[in-house]
Amino acid sequence: MNQQLLQSNQQLHSSNASLHTQLANVQYQLQQLTKLLRGFKSERFVPAAVSEQQTDLGLIFEQAAAATQLSEAQKITYTKVKQASAERQPATALPADLPRVVTTIEPSQDISGYEKVGEEIFETLDWKPGQLFVNRIVLPQYRNPSISRAGAGTIIQATRPARAVKRSIADPGLLAQVVIDKFTDHLPLNRQQDRFERHGLSIPYSTLADWVRLVAEAVEPLGGALLREMLRYTYWHADETGIAVLDKEKKKDTHQGYFWAYKAGNAPLIYYDYQPGRDADRPLEILNQFKGHLQTDGYGVYEKLPNKDITLFHCLAHARRKIFDAQSNDKARSEYVLTEMRKLYAIEESCMEQQLKIEQIKAIRQKEAIPVLKSLGEWMTKEYSLLRPKTPIARAMAYSIKRWDKLSLYATTGNLHIDNNAIERCMRQVAVGRKNWLFCGSHEAAKRAALLYSLVVTCKLNDVNPYEWLKDVLSQDIKEMHINKIKELLPHYWKKNRP
Hints:
Elements: H1 2-38, H2 59-68, E1 141-143, E2 155-157, H3 172-183, H4 189-198, H5 205-218, H6 220-230, E3 235-245, E4 255-264, E5 270-275, H7 284-287, E6 292-296, E7 310-314, H8 316-325, H9 331-353, H10 358-384, H11 392-402, H12 404-408, H13 421-437, E8 439-440, H14 443-461, H15 466-474, H16 483-486, H17 491-497
Parallel strand pairs: 3-6, 3-8, 6-7
Antiparallel strand pairs: 1-2, 3-4, 4-5
Helix pairs in contact: 3-5, 3-15, 6-14, 8-9, 8-11, 9-10, 10-11
């Protein structure tokens, strides 16, 4: 009888533990769905003292409390001081470099014999919609009357202006506007078509799509030049995001392709590479040429890279995000980890504010960050052994514990970043565009989109006006340029060479 009761008790205990795990997972899923429905994805965390009452969370956590001493977590506050501008303009002041259209309004009364003693001036900001117009280019032809009309070479005429796209009625300015509207301002071609109709000109959708194709083909040499430029650097970020692509072989569905993105860690350069899949061989074409440190989000494909010249390390922001999302499951443990990670980010913020050099950053990280990383890694390993493996907090900790050496590697240097946020910000450009134009029309169109994103996002990183840059580039005969001169058209070089 006692044996049966003991066995029954063990079964009930096991069933209870399983139900607790299921409940924790359901609560976690509910929290994530709620965030999506509300459109709220903030991961802001303000460290707070963990009260002594929080240690009363059941038998499992009572065992952990003594080992971790969570009640000793201290409240950390941060104050950001906004520097006042030395010459702050009034709120109504408008930039002096904007063109002014002056309109003088005389009094309606008769002012004959009056003397002007002053004037009142006020300014308002206005906008004039873009206008379609025709460039009529006239090339006069001249003949020397002293030479016989039958003589060869008697007619003199200027050469036609250089153009990167020669098989189009559209001028570089219009071509640039169509491309920038789509890939920078996320305006699909069908909406651009509607806008042109409002301005009195009907341009077929197929024509607009053809213009984008011609531009991509014209600037294709710049894509190769951009990649060669990036390969000069030995620190890259890497990330990937999905994109729907129309495929003739899938009549009722789209193909799931991917933009694989690579950003130079210490330079404002980024390269997007379209691949039809997300498996291990997709990034090899690019990464087999790379040597140095590669920072990723922990996606397992990068672990399988055969290139032994690559040192792989991971992004602390991804590890932090999983801990943040597990707060609904285990608030005390989550807040402890988030508080420790906040210390690491505070170190980075301090180094940035002081504009320290690489060697100085390395010294501070070794002195301040490495002890925090070592202590936190040991703490999570100890705590994980006390948790039910399938709970959200356990999965979040397991993610970090498995990758802790690669999450901590940045602190042994002065030039590597603590996270992959630099490239994630660049991926938003694709994400917003994808919500508007939904899919690419073919795999070739997706490759062209990747190329154009590479160039216009590099413009953004270098604070270059993408329209002005692309219009100027398309006003040159790229195919006739020497290969060593092509890189001078890249946004960062173009910016330096501008008069």
